[in-house]
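for the writeup, i need someone to sanity check this before i put it in the appendix. the sequnce is what the collaborator sent (i think, or maybe the updated version? ugh). structure was predicted straight from it, no edits. if anything looks off just tell me and ill rerun, i have time this weekend
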Amino acid sequence: MEFRLLGTVSIAAETGELPLGPAKRRSVLAALLLRANSAVPVDRLIDTVWDEDPPARARTVVQGHVSRLRALFDQGGAGDYGVELATHTQAYELRMPEQLLDTHRFDELVQLAGHQKHPADAVLMLREALALWRGPALTGTVASEPLLVAARALEETRLVTVEQLAAAHGRLGEHAKAAALLRAEAAAHPLRESLAAALMLSLYRAGHQSDALDVYHRTRTQLAEELGVDPGPALRAAYEAVLRGLAPAGQTVPWPEAAYGAPGPHPGPWTDGTSGAAATGAPYDGLPGGGHREDAGPREGIPHAGPAGTGSPGPASSGTGTPGLRSPGPGFPGAGLPGAGASPDGGASSGDAASAAGHEDGTAGPAAPAPPALPAPDLLPRTPRGFLGRERELAALDAAVDTARVALVTGPAGVGKTALALQWAHRRAGDFPDGVLYADLRGFSADDGLDALDVLREFLPALGVPPRRIPESPTAAAALYRSLTEDRALLVVLDNVRGADRARPLLPAGAHSATVVTSRLRLGGLVVSELARPVPLGVLGLDESAALLAAAVGTDRVAAEPAAARRLAELCDGLPLALRVTAAQLAARPHWRLADLADELADEQRRLALLSVGGAEEDAEGAGVAAALRLTVQGLPAEAARLFRQMGVAPGTDLDRHAAAALLDGTPAVAAEALDRLCDAHLLSEYAPGRHTVHDLVRLYARSLEPDEDALLRLLDHYTLTAMAAARAAEPDDLPCCAAPPDARTPRTAVRFAGRDAALLWYAAERDNLAAAVAAARAAGHHDRAWRLAVLQWPYILWNSHDGWVPLLEDAVDSAARVDDPDAESRARALLGWLLTQDGRLAEALVHLRLAPALAARAGERSSEATALVNLAVALDRTGVTEESLAHTARAAELVRGSGDVMTELLALEHRARQLLAVGDPRGALACAREGLALDGDTVNGLVGIRQSELTATAGAALLDLGRPAEARATLTRARELGLAHGYQESVRRVETQLLRIRETA
């Protein structure tokens, strides 16, 4: 078993990842794990779960989450690993071996690495430590202040470890590896001076002096602009070290104490003593903004612009010889294109044929004037208005572009992919001196969008190709585009791309260029073929959503109703498109309060209509949430689109491939493929292996579509038949509590369970879905399904009796009564009465329990009647054993004696034996217990084993009362073994009490 905080908060058991459920439960677990083996006050847990004023029932909610965690621990076999969730006065303590926690193993590996004599060993340990990180720490939890502080602290330890790993690489002489490791982190944390200093030194020692200096100047500028401070001592020391490294050969370069190792031989001094990328002889290292290689002169007849916005010419030639010019490729327009720019000293560039020509005697001929340089193209739309937050995503985009050169921004419709890409592009445009190209491929519009040739007809003129020279062939146009972009440092933004095949021809060929692609699809083809780095974009948090509303309608208006603003953010599901439409609604109604619109949006029947705007906008997202979703669904494969329509009837919060197969009336394999396609389109998200969920607005849109007529019944019958299979697997010795509905739709492939644990895990994972299915069945009038779906959960209910089941079973009682099924009503009332008894609500329990036996008798169901009588006796015995309760257990045992219903007979005999012991009849109790133990002595699984442990314990106590201590000790020892084997602590406690009596009287 493994507890994980370094990434999504989760628990990995032998059977797979345990279904933790909502963010608040993950937050409770995170708070307990952060202080493992220490008591955590309930008040602190409340502060962790609610980032603002908690509700009045906060303590009850926390207790509920703790209860669900205990159930999950039991299902995952936590006790076998020494894990226990203990209760103290007003506090909880998660007791566990520290090695089960990934943060402990991370710290241990880092500490071990620090003691290694050889840096290669340290590298291995530090890499193993960093491999434990599966994403930002404490992902999936509530964004409360305590957890944010903890996440920042953990992130700090990760960054320090990254710096240590880079230092270890440096000691091995692997400076390029150190630089590659540090570059991504420095991009994500541009104000962290230690990262910048380490990166500078790594770059210098890898032979990239200009890049090292560029890192310093960028960091110094950002520190000044964002914090108003100068670089600190470590960064200045690194800068001075690099500068001294540029001194004449042979001079020793001092190394700052904060850095690792001593510098190796530097790659040579600047020829003119300058320190900029434009200095003569400066090599180009492949980063934007660093100049061009000496041998990368402009091609013949190919325009080459200087830095964006400056109008300056392209790079100068070396000044000697004639550059090698390549022949035009297929479809190349040949002559007639503008020449290259002039060199900085006013002479002709190497791309000008006239300047390369000389006299026959070898002397230079007159220099021909160069044509004016073309300005660098800039096709970017304006910076999006109202853009807020997204700093983490912008940093991720920085890292993706700097490492992979192709970044893929993906997310659902209306989440703000275009706004993010444009905001980032405007920030980074200066890093690409040869310009920025942008195209909206309209891949999710009502028509087929633009293909690559349509876009190339915009890009090629921007790069200097006259329109008449653009090849008609898509292949030739793409070849010309590759030729023009091979030696340039361009940024290309491709917006709203539907397929990888439409993006590939538009990727620039040069190693110094970068591309940002946005799409509602995951575009795995680009990841595979182009090593594109995905940057997933999710919905906004509540604070960011409220800030977006404030930017649109005014801070005063939002500040006057902060609670209403947060409610609006929740109703908009954090979707920027929905929030902008909401802001438009408020702007159009200045007399409305925010609470008024929130009340309107709370009506699910009207929400999507309100989140739309009128008019004939061509942009799909401009027409509102429903329009954007409609265009996404239109592009789905047939089975995926059909599954999405069926999802409107799914009442639960998530579904797996088996539930999806029921909705489709297909096989799980077909359903899994459809689910993958919906995830690709960001209409679903796979939050845990095999389990998929959907955002509220997407669910509302799905409900507006027309599903198959019997889709809901198929889903209800899938849950019913699977619950029957789970009950059989959990308690194989018990008789089924009900049969399937006569007209049940049998799924193509039935769900099978490997055993009891797998069945209980399914109950836990599907609990919310089963409760929603009961409500949906009742609303649709399918009461015959509703009571079954509730009662069939009894194996899980028995182990989690204090977990809020009463409302569900009250609905089951009502549905059973509506279908006039007395046996169903008896079972529902008996189970509900038992639960109420466990909760101490005896008066309510007895109302149901006194009705249940007669209902079962009316139906002629002896097992149901016996169970109801035992449950009635259990309730009555809470105030002491009476003649009435003794009569009920005697009648129950008589009803099922010899019937083959071993479980119910054991239940009756177990309780009757304890009754007889309580009223002072040890002989009767011993006889009753032995009768039960003789039923099936070899069966010790599930509840049969628990019944036998109870009967054995009662037999031991009876023997002790009869003055037979030796037999009692042996019997009680056997009872303790049975109780421990089945994790039944109540039986173990009873036995320990009796064994203590023996020791005291010995």
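The chain has 42 helices and 14 strands. The two ends are 43 Å apart (CA to CA).
thx in advance!!
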